Amino acid sequence: MTHFPTIPVEVTLPRIEDPRGNLTFIQDSDQVPFDIERVDWIYDVPGGVFRPGHILVDKPMLVTALSGSLDVTATGAFGKACFTLNRPSTALLLPPSTKFEFSNFSTNTVAMTMSGTPGLSVPDEIITLENYKSNGHFTSLVSQCRIIELPRLGDLAGSLTPVVNGQGQLPFDTRRVYYLYDIPADAERGGHSHYCEQRLIVAAAGCFDVAVSDGKSWRTYTLNRPYRGLYVPQGLWRVLNNFSSGSVALALCSTPYSEDDYVRSFNEFLALSAKKIDI
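RE: above sequence
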């Protein structure tokens, strides 16, 4: 059984710096010592608003500021402590049975919380990479992409959008989350496809375009609502561009990171897609 810290702990997350914008990712059994079960992001919070929290009795929780800043007050067997989160690459790990409250939101803050089941992750052995290859580049079409409306729980203290594994909100369970921020307006991100990974892309802040291709045709989607995501199945090429100032691109992914799952050459992608099965 996993032994969690008995006090809140500040965690430094990976920060992959890039002149096109920085990237931070979080995945099962790597940056967090639990299986990801639920991801929420909170936005449209008026300045100075206090958001009362609650207690996850048996579950740990991770909190980070995707943009802006906020204070987190944590209360538990350790006593009471207050933390300020203002970096997308810094998070606060709360042990099980901790009461938490949010306050002092800065303008345009987007806060993300992630909760999970106790215990380290065991990778899902559902389908082999070879099977994914035959079901991805050989079969996926841009017409299979779609905009998914997510819950928007709004009140005077701001809005919250939750995505919970196992409730049919997405065609997959979330196994990794990453987000892009500090993105120059003329930057272009993406430029790859996946053998295995399915993904939901959300504009947690600002707006940007996502262009997807199945090797035969292209389709472009504009994302500009934090409660609306673009589902991209495996086997499609994707490019993110036309970022507005202060954009945060949030991605929920179906698999932990594996470089072997990426196709980064467009010519290789076209060669794989040329074998596409007519469905």
